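Narrative of activities, Objective 1.

The group set out to show that a structural description can be obtained from nothing but a protein's sequence at a throughput compatible with the screening campaign. Below is one input-output pair from the validation batch, recorded exactly as produced.
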Amino acid sequence: MICPHCSSAKISKNGTRIRMTKDAVQEYMCTKCSKYFSAPIEKENGDLLINRDVEPGKILELNFKKPVKIHGATDVHFGANEFHDSKFDNLIEEVKADPNARWFLNGDNIELIPPGYKISQRGQNMEPDEQHIHFIKKIEPIVDKLLFIRGGNHDMIRSVNILGFDVCRVMSDMLQVPYFRLPGYTQIMIGDQRWFLVSGHGKGGGKNGDLELDKMAAVYSDGDVFFLGHNHQLYCKPIDSLRVDNKEERLHRRWYCRGGSFLSYADYARYSFYPMIRTGWVTMEFGKDKIEAWTN
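Output recorded for this entry:
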């Protein structure tokens, strides 16, 4: 959500009101220019929903007139001792500078080690509430280009299991962007060309990252791009097959992507001789005729 008067992302809610048409709207105030504006509140079964959850079985629909570059920011781990601040700044700068760029958060957005948890709090350099607050401030320059947020095992699962409180859903509500609780489809229209991005945080930590992508592709068979995080592997590669079109074979290209992370080589990884994995992220460019993907 950005201010329509000055394009600032420094927005605060200012209550709700009912129009004469009986439609409810959310009132906002821009803390930069001090002007007010409103936006419709979604309805479902008569209940007011400010948060736009993408429930299982639903499809998030995005429409663009021009080709769009979508940057997948997964496993940021903001607040961890090994958080690679300058690399994440590179992503922010690239998204901010490109008018055709968009991005999404794919889970493990903050480190979130609660007090008394099974692992030491020494792995983070600020308390979980500070991580949440400072992370939102950090992404403020590009929050207007944020397509959706997803939770991961560090943030969403930990906060839900311990408190029954989904910190990632709260973040999506604060920023007024859709929230994916589980893996799912995002439909991306470039003019009249339709593509499907299938994304999820991921669960498997095996060396062969394709195995989990194979499982995803078997379930979400209409996908054109399959994107997972979690294991911190960074790669994207085309997966080609042959389809029949007007009684002729044609090449059908899909993409497998493991989205990397924004962590540098940790001390525990050095101690255990874990393999070194590049820090970075994946960019996917959706055009009218094809999709391209690369690592950063």
